[in-house]
Design brief:
This protein is of the alpha/beta class and 454 residues long. Helices cover 29% and strands 21% of the residues. The protein folds into two domains: 2-47 and 377-402 and 411-434, Roll (Urease, subunit C, domain 1), CATH 2.30.40.10; 50-366, Metal-dependent hydrolases (TIM Barrel). α3 packs across α4, α4 crosses α8 (209-226) and α8 packs parallel to α9.
Amino acid sequence: LVIKGGTIVTPLSTRSAEIGIDGGRIAAIGENLSGREEIDASGMLVLPGAIDAHTHMALPVAGTRSSDDFHTGTIAAAAGGVTTIVDFTVGRRETTIPAEIESRLKDARPAVVDYAFHAEVIGWGPGRDEEFSAAIELGVVSFKFYTAYESSGRRTPPHIMREAFAAIGRLGGTALVHAEDEGLIESIAARLTPEDLSRMATLAVARPPLCEEAAISQVSRIARETCCPVHIVHVSSALGLSAVRDAKRSGIDLTAETCPQYLLLTRAVYDREDGYLFSAVPPLRDEADRSALWEGLRMRDIDLIATDHCPFTREQKAWRGSFLELPYGLPGVETLLPLVYSEGVGRGILGLTDLPRLLSEAPAQIYGLYPRKGALEPGSDADIVIFDPDFEWRISAEGLHMKTDFSPYEGMEVTGKVLATVSRGDVIYRDGEMNAEPGRGEYLRAEPRLQGRD
């Protein structure tokens, strides 16, 4: 297969060249290449496949499951130019991290794009370091912790987190953190009345930006003490970003992500009649936070954009009288690339080369998948997106592949659309048609950092 006529976009440059593909990998980049099949990409952008490094397919939550499974969710991913997802195991106190990896691998068998995993750490205690080393042997090198959710047993206390981080750092792994301060959340919750709980807008008040800033600051100190690389997921606020920036400037090995919902939406949607459909944690913030996050991307304080894709149907999110009764999560895997292009590059906030850096290279590097993934280079997997930068369309849940009847971006006018998606040399999506058999996706064994930390 040869892709001709397009503009190849990498984190370092844009150039007109052809890409030759053989055996599922990029064989050559140059001129006058020939192959049995050719794709004319004239006038189009040729991008590395996007990596959505934060998805939750078929996630058990609030008595239900997120509505996309690994088949439907990866079909949606392919239609949106996402050729790799990194999902999560489902942590349980009564089992081990390796057992949960094996269980999740079974769930993922129907995937049509490639996938890797983060391991959710629940109920870990000292003396169980072997679970981390066993997980790394299975190809999982990133481990997720919570500083909140004490009532559901997901929170890891700071003293336990410190021991876990030390073990992970020694093994060359990375710790991921959902950063919201439990003490602040509980102190606010104690003052909320039933009337407060019955208003969707209270969600933003119940988990304010201060919670995020405090948790990131504490986690940063633990990362410094243990020499463990740490990644902060779904940074949502200017205060949270400030804590990230402070940690980086003090030399802590810390990276961060944000999500389209925090870049494009504000808590004003909670005042809508259907505001409950936008339930997510961290909650949506103010316009000033939204602007600060774009600036954080521009200044490279935020390393990547992922979606936290966790969709539910309108029925699953039906209002039950309190925001505490709602499942938290929003759909996003299919709209990631077009939204970041349209609202970031299209508005001049980001440069064109920022697109592959934020959506492909950075997640691959942080999570041990580079250079097999995240690069347009000879020897890398031929995960390629042909993208029309001028195509204008309107987002509608009805016209998307995600298994939900709701999109938080419903009605938004977008410029830029995926025309074709190539996964390991296979054209799995082209001109609105899917051509991917269930199970063609491969499990990716991530690589630990070359040298752990003593």
